[in-house]
TrEMBL record:
Keywords: Oxidoreductase. The lineage of its organism: Bacteria, Bacillati, Actinomycetota, Actinomycetes, Propionibacteriales. Residues 126-246 form the GFO/IDH/MocA-like oxidoreductase domain. Signal peptide: none annotated. Residues 1-118 form the Gfo/Idh/MocA-like oxidoreductase N-terminal domain. It comes from Kribbella deserti. The keyword Oxidoreductase applies. It comes from the Bacteria. Pfam families: GFO_IDH_MocA, GFO_IDH_MocA_C3. This is Gfo/Idh/MocA family oxidoreductase.
């Protein structure tokens, strides 16, 4: 199959290389708002180059992958829908809640499959945790702890269009939480701080954040994250139940060491980036998309899933700014 990809930045180039290595993909066609960048990535991969999105969509594609800037997602999804080509889009759907709701409405009104890129759903650990919760192996779940820690912050120019810490970073934790538990968040209480570079505060953002979420079965969820986790890229989830507990991301690459005597775990080295941490999950995710394109699989992560994760992030941002608990019913469905 021929897969078109728009966006040749860090994640776009990574996705292009992953797609090019898949047995089901015969050719990858790449474009970008900066054509020179797309042409260079295409040349490196032996892929095709398209000068713009309209040209790309006219090149007989079987699937359309969107890895462009967040601000372009909604428009590009619209173009893919109009072309009636199955779509894979990196999160989020749009820069704000109203835009996200509009995309969901457009997608659900049509018949074009749209798969959203929340790669943790394809990670072995998260999938095993989801199965354990569903099967009742842990008893009832009373507490979950989830964290995302980046080694170092993104460049200053990224922050104004990122959507803020909860919408950009912890949104992955929120989607993984829904995936693992099968439950919905009913309320949040969130806070954040800026102890690093001043540019976060200049754009009204934070570089570290925390939130207490309550699920619809009264499970408590503690979510935190930071842009400054110098020990390594650290993504984990701990699920604590009445009969047992389970940890995702607790392996020899965990960016956490013990203060206890004679403990040598983890062996290391720690993961340096999210692409390193989740490389197998990204491969599984894009393999799943080729199956969606082929019509042999239902969409595994829908626009509705993206909306619900975004609603949680939106509630957390409101809570942080207004310093109060926020019920999810306050944030439009």
């Amino acid at each position: 199959m021929r897969i078109g990809l728009v966006g040749a930045g860090r994640i776009g180039a990574f996705h292009a290389a992953t797609l090019a290595a898949l047995a089901a993909v015969e050719q990858v066609v790449i474009t970008d708002a900066a054509p020179d960048r797309a042409e260079m990535v295409a040349k490196d991969l032996g892929a095709e180059f398209a000068p713009d999105v309209d040209s790309l969509l006219a090149m007989g594609l079987d699937g359309f992958v969107i890895a462009a800037a967040t601000s372009a997602h909604a428009d590009l999804i619209g173009k893919g829908l109009a072309a009636r080509i199955p779509i894979f889009c990196e999160k989020p759907l749009a820069v704000d809640l109203a835009g996200t709701q509009a995309v969901v409405q457009a997608v659900e009104a049509g018949a074009v499959p749209v798969h959203i890129g929340f790669q943790r759903r394809f990670d072995f650990g998260y999938r095993k945790a989801a199965a354990a919760v569903k099967n009742g192996e842990l008893g009832y779940i009373h507490t979950i702890r989830a964290n995302t820690g980046d080694v170092s912050p993104p460049p200053a120019e990224y922050i104004p269009t990122s959507g803020g810490f909860f919408r950009d970073c912890n949104v992955h934790d929120f989607d993984a939480l829904r995936f693992v538990t099968g439950r919905e968040v009913v309320s949040v209480y969130a806070t954040g701080a800026n102890r690093g570079e001043a540019f976060f505060g200049e754009y009204g953002d934070v570089d570290s954040a925390a939130a207490l979420l309550t699920l619809d079965d009264n499970t408590f969820v503690l979510v935190n994250g930071t842009r400054y986790n110098g020990a390594g890229h650290d993504v984990r989830m701990e699920i604590l139940g009445s009969k047992g507990s389970l940890a995702v991301g607790l392996d020899d690459h965990t960016a956490l060491t013990s203060a206890e005597a004679e403990v040598t775990f983890p062996a290391g080295p720690a993961h340096g980036t999210f692409m390193e941490r989740f490389h197998p999950a990204y491969v599984a995710e894009l393999t799943a998309f080729t199956e969606v394109v082929a019509g042999t699989r239902e969409v595994p992560c829908t626009v509705r899933d993206a909306l619900e994760a975004f609603r949680i992030a939106e509630a957390c941002e409101i809570s942080r700014r207004e310093n109060r608990p926020v019920n999810l019913d306050e944030v439009g469905r």
